[in-house]
Structures are given as structure tokens and as C-alpha cells.
Write a structure and sequence with these properties.
- The chain is an all-alpha fold.
- The protein has one domain.
- It has 2 helices and no strands.
- The radius of gyration is 21 Å and the shape is rod-shaped.
Length: 95
């Protein structure tokens, strides 16, 4: 930690609050995105996997690739929110 980011710096407390708020918003929005994506996947591919008629549509490789990309993005989203909150809540150090 450099000299600017000590407890003597009045802006440091505000930065910690901003980091915690941004991290919390990332976590909450990530939960909402994961829930909406999972419910859509559940309905589209497990309960109602139908075409316009009564044909059941199998999963294609593009669908599986999309699942991996979306869940990887959501994992990175949660991880960045967690790191911001962890950085904001760590103990202060004196210089």
C-alpha cells in the first residue's frame, strides 16, 4: 500500500465505501442474471424443448458452447464482485 492509501487520507474511506457498493451491485446483479438465465434454460431445454410442432429439439454444440461461455462470464462477474468487497473490508494498515 502506498502513502496515499493510508488511514490518514480522507478519500480512502470513501473509496472503500465505493468499492463495497460496486462489489455488492455486481454480486446482486450476478445473482439476478444467473437466476434469469437458469430459469430460461430450464424452461427452454428441459420442460419445453419443442419446435413449432411437437418435435423435440436436441441440443446442438452451439447451445453447449453458449452455456459454457455464459456461466464462465457469470463466474468472472461474481469473482470480481467478491474481490472488490474483500478489498473494501480488509483491515486498515498504518504506515
Amino acid at each position: 500500500m502506498n502513502e496515499r492509501q493510508t488511514t490518514r487520507d480522507p478519500k480512502f474511506g470513501r473509496r472503500r465505501v465505493i468499492w463495497a457498493l460496486v462489489g455488492s451491485m455486481l454480486i446482486v446483479s450476478g445473482i439476478f442474471l444467473a437466476w434469469s438465465f437458469a430459469s430460461k434454460e430450464l424452461n427452454d431445454f428441459y420442460f419445453i424443448p419443442r419446435d413449432e410442432g411437437d418435435r423435440i429439439l436436441p441440443r446442438r454444440w452451439q447451445d453447449l458452447l453458449m452455456l459454457g461461455v455464459v456461466w464462465s462470464f457469470l463466474f468472472a462477474w461474481f469473482w470480481s464482485g467478491y474481490r472488490l468487497i474483500k478489498y473494501a473490508l480488509r483491515p486498515r494498515t498504518e504506515v
